[in-house]
Amino acid sequence: MHDVLLVVLTAGASAVAAWWGGKLGVQRDAEKLAQARAFDRRLDWYERATRALQRYKIEHTRYLDSISRADRTAAERHYLSVVNCFREIAPTLQECILYGTPATLSVFLDVL
Questions:
Q1: Are 63 and 84 in contact (CB under 8 A)?
Q2: Cα(36)–Cα(41) distance, integer angstroms
Q3: How far apart are CA 100 and CA 44, in angstroms?
Q4: N or C: which end of the chain has fewer CB within 10 A?
C-alpha cells in the first residue's frame, strides 16, 4: 500500500510540476512575442517616418528651388506636393507619441 501511495503522489506531484512549468513557459513565450511585435511596430514606424520626412524634404527643396527660379507653374505643382507630403506626415507625427522618443519628436518638429 505504501508503494502504491508513493507512486500516486509522485505522479501527481510530477503532473502538477509539469503543468506549472508549462504554464510559466507559455507565459514567458507570450511576453517575448508581445515584445517582439512591439519592436516590429516601432521599427515599422521609424521606417515610415524616415521615408515621409525624406519625401517632405525633397518636395520642399523643389518648391523653394522653383520659387528661386521664378517658375510659377512648377512652384504651384511643388507646393501641392509639399501639402500632400505634410498630410502624410501628420498621422506619422501623431504616432510618434506611441513609438518615438522625445528626442525623435524634437527632430521631427525641427524638420517641419
A1: no
A2: 9
A3: 11
A4: N
Cα→Cα distances 96→6, 89, 100, Å: 60, 11, 4
* pLDDT reported for residue 112: 67
Range of the domain at 54: 2-111
Whole-model pTM: value is 0.63
CA distance 105 to 89: 12
Alpha carbon distance 76, 61 (integer Å): 13
Angle 102-111/2-68 helices, nearest 10 degrees? Answer: 20
Q: How many domains, the chain?
A: 1
